[in-house]
Design goal:
Largest sheet: 7 strands, mixed
Radius of gyration: 20 Å
CATH topology of the largest domain: Quinone Oxidoreductase, Chain A, domain 1
Structural class: alpha/beta
Shape: globular
CATH architecture of the largest domain: Alpha-Beta Complex
Number of strands: 15
Number of domains: 2
Strand content: 25-35%
């Protein structure tokens, strides 16, 4: 038996229950991982509320780090005793231990601890593909990144600085503005005090940015389009304020033939070779110290309802983890 969070219906934080579940041996192609730390991400809220549907009853969580305790038939990617981490499907990381497809597991470098790994995999791999594949950035580019003081945002601020990219970040408080600045954002806009679209135009001398990275969704979408220069790219990769409402493609044409994409980690990491390449890139900048993972909240797995409540209320900054 192992303890895990399960939901029988969608809804608020109260639908999450810590229960005993049977954990059999890993099947063919699987490895059993005993978690040392588990990542907490806004996508977990989407599954809990039903914005992203899943069969019920079900689990939650898409990111964890721990030790391989057993392997099934045909597994070649990892072996018993390996320190590993993962991000992505199948859902169910909110557990003391679980069986995972071995093809999803990555062996951790010795320089990276379990807490750091659990806090960085989903968020760090997200920044990696956003900056290197969705819109391949180069030194001298100027971008807008919403929620710059969140877990993804702080990694983005640091990684942009490493790449020589000018990052304009948005935040919701002066405390978060200071945090984003400390982590490498060139300009920070408090959207509760300033119109971010107008400030972006001021900062860029009316030119606009080449790309907007937006995990907020409904509240920032149209304003973000107005921040783009002609032929710029809108990258909508989250819905923290709700889904983007339907809009006319003419909105893109009238603003200068804009591009738009709605990427997901699962698509970009579907091939093992792409996952390994992205992880190598992420592990490199973290192990070197160029990108530091700032864990600002740690919760016991049993306190996951509190964790979700604070995450949804935007009371968290940096990265958060659950400890089994």
């Amino acid at each position: 038996m192992t303890k895990a969070i399960r939901i029988n219906r969608v809804g608020g934080p109260e639908v999450m229950e810590l229960v005993d579940v049977e954990l059999g041996p890993p099947g063919p192609g699987e490895a059993q991982v005993r978690h040392e730390a588990i990542g907490l991400n806004f996508i977990d809220v989407y599954f809990r509320t039903g914005l992203y549907p899943q069969p019920l009853p079900g689990g939650l969580g898409m990111e964890g780090a721990g030790v391989v305790e057993a392997v099934g038939e045909g597994v070649t990617e990892v072996q018993v005793g390996d320190r590993v981490a993962y991000a992505g499907r199948p859902i169910g990381a909110y557990a003391e231990a679980r069986n995972m497809p071995a093809s999803q597991l990555l062996v951790l470098p010795e320089k990276i601890g379990f807490d750091t790994a659990a806090a960085m995999m989903l968020q760090g791999l997200t920044v990696q593909y956003l900056f290197h594949r969705t819109v391949p950035l180069k030194a001298g580019d100027t971008i807008l990144f919403h929620a710059a003081a969140g877990g993804v945002g702080l990694i983005a601020c640091q990684w942009a600085k490493v790449m020589g990219v000018t990052l304009i970040g948005t935040v919701g408080s002066e405390e978060k503005a200071a945090l984003a600045t400390e982590n490498g954002a060139h300009h920070v806009i408090n959207y509760n005090k300033e119109n971010f679209t107008e400030r972006v135009k001021e900062i860029t001398g009316g030119k606009g940015v080449s790309a907007v990275y937006d995990s907020i969704g409904k509240d920032t979408f149209i304003g973000s389009l107005d921040c783009l220069q002609p032929l710029g790219t809108m990258v909508s990769f989250g819905n923290a304020s709700g889904p983007v409402p339907p809009f006319s493609l003419g909105e893109l044409a009238s603003r200068g033939s804009l591009f738009i994409t709605r990427p997901s980690l699962m698509s970009y990491m579907a091939k093992r070779e792409d996952l390994e390449a992205a992880a190598k890139s992420l592990f490199g900048v973290v192990a070197s110290g160029e990108v530091k993972i700032d864990i600002r909240q740690r919760y016991a797995l049993a306190d996951v309802a509190q964790a979700h409540t604070e995450l949804e209320a935007r009371k968290t900054t940096g990265s958060s983890i659950l400890l089994p």
